[in-house]
Specification:
With about 550 residues, the protein is α/β, with parallel strands linked by helices. It is about 50% helix and about 10% strand. It has helices spanning about 15-30, 60-65, 100-110, 120-125, 150-155, 175-185, 205-210, 215-235, 245-250, 255-275, 280-285, 295-320, 325, 345-360, 380-395, 410-435, 435-440, 445-460, 490-505, 510-525, 530-535, 540-555, and strands spanning about 1-5, 10, 90-95, 115-120, 165-170, 195-200, 240, 240-245, 285-295, 330-335, 365-370. β1 and β2 (about 10) form a beta hairpin.
Amino acid sequence: MKVEEGNTPMTDLSELHKRWEEETVKPALESFPERKETFTTSSGIPLERVYVPQEGCEGDYEERLGFPGEYPYTRGIQPTMYRGRLWTMRQYAGYATAEESNERYKYLLQQGQTGLSVAFDLPTQIGYDADDPLAVGEVGKVGVSISSLADMERLFDGIPLERVSTSMTINAPAAILLAMYIAVAKRQGADIRKLRGTVQNDILKEYIARGTYIFPPRPSMRLITDLLAYCAEHVPKWNTISISGYHIREAGSTAVQEVAFTLANGIAYVQAAIDAGLDVDRFGEQLSFFFNAHNNFLEEVAKFRAARRLWARIMRERFGATNPRALMLRFHTQTGGSTLTAQQPENNVVRVAIQALAAVLGGTQSLHTNSLDEALGLPTQQAVQVALRTQQIIAYESGAADSVDPLGGSYLIEALTDEIEARAREYIEQIDAMGGALAAIEHGFINREIQEAAYRTQQAIERGEQIVVGVNAFTVEEDVPIEILRVDPAIEARQRERLAKLRASRDNERVAGLLSRLEQAARGSDNLMPLFIECVENDITLGEICGVLRDVFGEHQPQQFI
């Protein structure tokens, strides 16, 4: 909506503001009421829902910023944001056995956590059972050990899956773990159409930064599109992929690279789904993202805003999406694990608070705050409580959630947002010229860019040009002053015993028949998700399913980039 003032086109913001309140906010509030009637500062100063430029400063406001809940979503995907509902407080947790992790989940829910986030151990992440020779020494160490449906049932014992949102950080075998989750929900009597949560399911970033891949890229992409297609029909509220910049940043990328490489991967997934015959306006609603939050506070806020705007433009201009929900970049944030220090670990509480506040002011939908002791080991219960309380203090005491996009309009924030978007777009154009994200990964381009950025950062730290408090400045002599959580090595033997009993008690003739069917289906083109569910419901293990897929698909052999 434009008016002429002299020879300069201007935006009539008062009219746009009225239209936004009537057409966007009012319908949202009917089903999504604000948490309270009025929002004020501690001095009683009332806070408006959203702030816009003063008269004469509008510029191209509608195109670059717009209003919250409207394209291009720079200011947030919901018109009311946290005034309507706070972000999901989702602490990443899992270790040792399913029973011990279940206790941690129940504790966190009692402490006010509003969503679950499951960490799996390394054997589970790469498709091996706890009794596999390759799993020796790793069972339950960096997450919970899940080999069978029985393990998954123990993990969620007493937790009604129809009423809780669950995120699972699992990639190569994501479809199989989701099959187990669906099977548990069915046994609980839940309506699977009501299940809410996320599987990470982002294999491209595994080849770039994380390394927990199993199969080569092309069959891995098939598993992803099978999962997308199945959930679009049967589990419509589930986020079928969490396109992850977090691990790209942890590997040493810059904020710009995190946005660029994450969205480039997103482009590859969208194109693969379209090529598989899926409707972008349908499956686009179930895409989600996962970003890091680091210490450069203002850049991090701008990064989230730039990513949201750029993705909306990509989905509309490149893929022709018209469904507003398919244009929205919905994202989970985790504070930066690589920023934590083993030296003076109490300082990590401050780092996490700054990073979490950046995520909130950047408009995250879900947040995990790291614990102060994670540079030393798995987080203790007390440290996890402090991490969760950090989110709750931001939510209920800081006032940061009382107005939509409170930093929007800052000259610095808007300049950073524009610059991050422009530089990320340049990277995406380079990747497109190579043939897309998969080709850029195969050529080593993305890996080299991240490695060079990580090397520059490390040099700056070693030269003292970049200060890390307690590491290269403000150091003290200290012993490790805090308790470290250690996993009992005896759990590995217990898991092996459980698997032996499971294999002895199940219908092994039926198991053999299902595994034969699975092999035939993997060699064909049918959607594998229904067969995965049938397999796990008949006590076929994760490792057995992945073993069949390894035989059919092969295993990914990483290239060496020099």
